[in-house]
Structure formats: C-alpha cells, structure tokens
Request: fold
Amino acid sequence: MEFIVRNAVLQLIKGDITDVEADAIVNAANSTLLGGGGVDGAIHRKGGPKILEECKRIRATEWPDGLPTGNAVITSGGNLKAKYVIHTVGPVWMGGFHVEAELLKRAYKNSLKLAVSKGLRTIAFPSISTGAYRYPVEEASRIAIGVVKDFLENTDKLEKVTFVLFSNRDFNVYLQAVEDLLK
Ligand code: AR6
Reply:
C-alpha cells in the first residue's frame, strides 16, 4: 500500500526487511551493536561479517559503553541489497511509565535524520521495539507513522519511507495507524 505525504511515498509492505532494496534499511538493534535475534539476527546473517566489523569499530571509536537508546549509527549494507544499514536502539517496554514513547520517537527521528545527512533518499523500517522489546504494536505503530509523517511534511529530501511488517496482524495495525493519522 502506498500513500503520499507532501512529495514522498509512505509505503507499507508485508515481508522480510533483509530482502528490501533501499538506500538504507533500519536495524532494530541493541546497545551492544553486536547482534541478537529478530531483525538484528536476520540482518547480520544475510549481510555478512562486514556489518559486524563496522559495528565493532563504531563501538570502539564512538560508543565504548554502547549506543544509547534512541540513537542511530550507520554501516554499509554488506551483502544485502540495501546500500546501508542504520542501526538504532528502541526502548524496552516497561509498562509505558518510563519515557518509552519519547525514546521510540527518537529512534525513528534520528534514523531519518541520519539518512538525510548522508544524502540517502529511500529508507525502510521494521516495527522497532515490538518484538523482543515487547512494545505494544498499536501504540508503537502510531508513534512510528506519526514521526515519519511529521518528518516528510517538513523535508523534500526523502523519496520513500517503507515500513516492512513481518505478520498480517502487524501490517493491519500499521495500516490502521496510517488511515487514522493521514486523513
Ligand atoms: N523483517 C522484518 N521484520 C522482522 C524480521 C525481518 N526479517 N524479523 C523479525 N521482524 P525484534 P525489538 C519483526 O525483536 O523488539 C534483537 O535481539 C518482529 O516480528 O527484531 O526492537 C536485538 O538484538 C517484530 O515485529 O526487535 C535486540 O536485543 C519487529 O520485527 C532486540 O531484539 C521487531 O522485533 C530488539 O527488540
């Protein structure tokens, strides 16, 4: 499904983000940047060791104590179709009382800003924090779509933002968020 926001396309697809051709795909990483399960595991498996080497270098040179929640960094895409991977860390859901919403907003916003600062024009996101980190997908989808909508309304530097949802249920939840927030 495709929607227009100002000059850009906001796209929702169901699928595997490691198959997506985009200037950058976003990894729902953890602070170590050293891999994990879910999207993170899939990206490192398919992208190959180059991505992990770059992550280790970023840790050593920029974030020796780990990448703080809400921040984003960029590596090459290794063997993926995507040229780059933007690694961000979403919040762990703790019941909604621990600024999770603000941190999730930051993860999306900092990923978008980083893409623009590198001159990238197409970016694909997974549903950050709604897997292992247990953020309720209804709430997370509204934050995700809201941040992207605001961002696209204020820039003409991005051509396309894609959300890649892994299940029919998540796809439908995101679709509902788009229908509610874009009308
Ligand atoms: N393509 C698209 N979406 C996917 C894929 C895929 N290949 N695989 C899983 N999903 P998660 P989080 C969906 O757990 O909640 C990792 O271990 C999944 O169904 O990947 O931010 C990291 O290292 C869910 O809807 O990320 C961290 O430790 C969504 O992606 C931690 O998990 C996010 O699930 C991060 O947890």
Strands lie at 2-5, 8-14, 24-29, 72-76, 84-89, 122-125, 160-165. Residues 15 and 155 are 27 Å apart (CA to CA). The chain has a mean pLDDT of 97. The chain has five helices and seven strands.
